[in-house]
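Aim 2 progress update. The chain analyzed this quarter is reproduced below.
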Amino acid sequence: MPDVKKLMNDPNTIVKESIEGMLLAYPNYYQKHSDKTVLFRSPDQQKVSLVSGGGSGHEPMVAGLIGDRMLSGAALGNVFASPDPQTILAAMESVKSDAGILNLVWNYAGDRMNFDTAAEFAEMKGLKIDTVIINDDIASAPKERAEERRGVAGILLIAKIAGAAADRGDDLASVKALAQAATDNTKTIGIALSACSIPGKPRNFMIAEDEFEYGMGIHGEPGIKSEVFKDAKSIVQDMMDDLIEEFGLEKLQSEEVVVLVNGMAATTSLELFLINQEVREYLANKKITVYDNVVGKYCTSLEMAGASISLMTLDDERKTLYDVPAATPFYSRYIGGVGK
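Predicted structure tokens:
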């Protein structure tokens, strides 16, 4: 299969040059480590710092979540490749705080292994470290093996909760507990209409013109099934049915939810808002109350077309934390809000 055309100079330098462009766009916002692909903001020594990381190609994830009452720093790997332990360690050291550091780690083997190694190095240097594993993708493993599920777009909502808890001065154990509870109550399902590819390499798989992949991962991991393409209402119905089954209808009717409709890079806003309309109609028919609704491209996959839907249920504490203002260059909680 031929290479996919991408605007680049050299596939080996695309991440470095992209980061340089990001720094030029936000010159007074991010800081960059002197020799590692780490972006960060200066930490508050009295508050827990939040660190995440992962392969590039999912922009604005994860560097785009660095901001006020969100992430403190991020370690960035090559396209679809985990950052190495030394890069992750550099991210932790860049935002080291007397209150400690909480790592929010997507549940992929490379990310977990490299974050574990970096955390060991950090603890040997006297840093206080803890970790929450993000595993919101319900398509990637059944309920009984939920610990194997991948992390995807739900990290946006989880970082929102953890960032607010850290900002109010909660200790490391408390921030971890709240981030874990947010993770346990956040579920995502996604679909893909077309495949992604790594810069400089040919596409290694295709999705047929008359089909879509149900449950495909953000690196092109196989989904649950390939299906004949159909209208948006029918696709959303299937996705929402699976999310309802995952949570249980009674739970969703008893707690308000945050809805995140996330687009892959090749999906238009026209389509995303149409999907959102279908999601909201579905939830209204099920008598499930929406507390807030976020629509946008937050966890992308290069030129993949597709979308994911995430739901996070809110108890009183998560609702309080969710309402705390937050801002990054790519996400804001200052605007929007259902019925506010």
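The first helix runs from residue 14 to 25. The CA atoms of residues 62 and 136 lie 16 Å apart. These observations will guide the mutagenesis experiments scheduled for the next reporting period.
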